[in-house]
Specification:
Elements lengths: L5 E12 L6 E12 L3 E5 L6 H8 L7 E6 L2 E2 L5 H11 E5 L10 H12 L5 H10 L15 H14 L4 E5 L7 H16 L5 E4 L3 H4 L4 E6 L2 E7 L3 H15 L1
Parallel strand pairs: 3-8, 3-9, 6-7, 7-8
Antiparallel strand pairs: 1-2, 1-4, 4-5, 9-10
Helix pairs in contact: 3-5, 4-5, 5-6
The structure holds adenosine-5'-triphosphate.
Adenosine-5'-triphosphate (ATP) binds next to β2 and α1.
Pfam families: ABC_tran (PF00005)
Organism: Actinomadura rubrisoli
InterPro entries: AAA+_ATPase (IPR003593), ABC_transporter-like_ATP-bd (IPR003439), ABC_transpr_LolD-like (IPR015854), MacB-like_ATP-bd (IPR017911), P-loop_NTPase (IPR027417)
Amino acid sequence: MTEETAAVRASGLKKRYGSGDAAVIALAGVDVTFRRQRFTAIMGPSGSGKSTLMHCVAGLDKPDEGEVWIGGTRLAGLNDDQLTDLRREKVGFLFQTYNLLPTLTALENITLPFDLAGKKADMRVIDAIVDALGLGDRLDHRPTQLSGGQQQRVACARALAAEPEVVIADEPTGALDSNSSDELLGYLRRSVDEMGQTVVMVTHEPSAAAYADRVLFLADGSIVDEMPAPTADSVLDQMKALEKVGR
Ligand SMILES: Nc1ncnc2c1ncn2[C@@H]1O[C@H](COP(=O)(O)OP(=O)(O)OP(=O)(O)O)[C@@H](O)[C@H]1O
């Protein structure tokens, strides 16, 4: 795999919390590559290390061992300020809780990362994203005036606005009803197919994972399986099989 095709690469990631008898191995040595313009879903039982992997891969947390590269930049070689800049420019975040600032309008929330970085937003890019997400008539609204689905679409627009190297989504549909989930997932899918975005998404839902190009299954801090071209049924079957092995 060349640097050109890898948006994010991680090698030998290990992470342990606590020490002695209370130690928990959250990552047991993970090697993974997220190729550009691909949508990857990460699944696995509770406590299998999904969030820890996402945090290490996004530079929010440091692994005890191993290396992460985002778009060819080695995270371990950066100081805290450089890491903050890299996250702001190269990583878009989407969480279950929308994390919008209540005093700002939808548009101000979308452009906030640019304002914090003292940079000018590319309004052509933002207009296209806002259009695709159907947020055009909501831009002056504050988060409390928006539905959950609309708030998550604003968070999605914010994550995509800087055209990041990768969008890291940690259970982005966890708080949404099924219609809003489908809309958001359909948009993430189109951002990969039509805008060339790279998306990595943690989910517990087979129907959400079916929007991805491949699913990685985690158990006990390791990647134990990988499924290309997933469907909701094939993912569900695989989860059941892994649960049986784990018992
Ligand atoms: N800050 C922390 N301190 C101590 N242990 C932690 C910490 N964060 C995670 N862990 C432990 O590390 C393991 C992996 O946690 P992680 O949150 O990555 O799992 P997960 O697969 O995302 O789980 P879930 O699906 O429940 O969100 C778990 O056993 C968890 O209890």
